[in-house]
Amino acid sequence: MREIVCALHRELVRNNLVAWTAGNISGRVPGEELFVIKPSGISYDDLTPESMVVCDLDGTLVEGSLAPSSDTAAHAYIYRHMPEVNGVVHTHSTYASAWAARGEPIPCVLTAMADEFGGEIPVGPFALIGNDDIGQGVVATLRGRRSPAVLMRNHGVFTVGDSPKAAVKAAVMCEDVARTVHISRQLGEPLPIPQDDVDRLYDRYQNVYGQRSNR
Ligand SMILES: [Zn+2]
């Protein structure tokens, strides 16, 4: 899991989702009450599997010589309250954060959004770092929704997945649709997709699309 989480951080850089060290990925350790997360303030170029830190589900450091990400409490809260989640990503990616800065959900106006998010990408509450407020806001917003992404108001994006890779994919797709819908808005009002078509697209993508062995 250290190797997986370390390697996935390169995807944040490759997909232009992060500036400096402002973004992090974690992954639940299978069968353990533990997760692996990025150390705080370390350049993405300098990350190694050995430098990844291991925390328990209270966010307490269990293994590693570096301090865990400053967002560790939020990741821990999500793992404690969403047992189906095995990967969490946090970024301040530009277009998604621009929607978050306005406190505006991204409307479902692209078939790719219906596929991946099953509807709009919702906005979570304004919350300050330092306690469980961010984690609570993420969980309260995502629970009972299809979207694996939430725009935390005035802040950035949290995504979840059944693996760290799935959470990274959601973060990449979230920024992609945030950008496209933003550009569409410049020229007029994007057309909504009827709910029953959103439902059909979501069902097909989640259950039929792709290689059967690679889902
Ligand atoms: Zn942040």
Instruction: Give the termini distance in whole angstroms.
Output: 19 Å
User: Would you identify the regions where 5 or more consecutive residues have pLDDT less than 50?
Assistant: none
Please summarize the sheet with the most strands.
Answer: 8 strands, mixed
Helix content: 25-40%
- Estimated radius of gyration: 17 Å
Number of helices: 7
> Average pLDDT value?
95
User: Structural class from helices and strands?
Assistant: alpha+beta
User: Based on DSSP secondary structure assignment, what is the total number of beta strands?
Assistant: 8
Shape: globular
Across the major sheet, the strand order is: 4-3-2-1-5-8-7-6
Topology pattern, helix = H, strand = E: HEEEEHEHHEHEEHH
The proportion of residues in beta strands is: 15-25%
Bound molecules: zinc ion
Structure characterization notes:
By secondary structure, the protein is an alpha+beta fold. Helices cover 40% and strands 16% of the residues. It has helices spanning 2-14, 72-81, 94-102, 111-117, 133-142, 164-186, 195-207, and strands at residues 23-28, 34-37, 53-56, 61-63, 87-91, 123-124, 149-152, 156-161. An 8-stranded mixed β-sheet has the order 4-3-2-1-5-8-7-6, sandwiched between helices. Helix 1 (2-14) packs parallel to helix 6 (164-186). The chain binds zinc ion. Zinc ion is lined by residues 90, 92, 155-156.
Keywords, please?
single chain, 215 residues, alpha+beta, eight-stranded mixed sheet, 7 helices, 8 strands, globular, binds zinc ion
What is the fold's blueprint, element by element?
Blueprint: H1 2-14, E1 23-28, E2 34-37, E3 53-56, E4 61-63, H2 72-81, E5 87-91, H3 94-102, H4 111-117, E6 123-124, H5 133-142, E7 149-152, E8 156-161, H6 164-186, H7 195-207
Parallel strand pairs: 6-7
Antiparallel strand pairs: 1-2, 1-5, 2-3, 3-4, 5-8, 7-8
Helix pairs in contact: 1-6, 2-5, 3-6, 4-6, 4-7
Bound molecules: zinc ion.
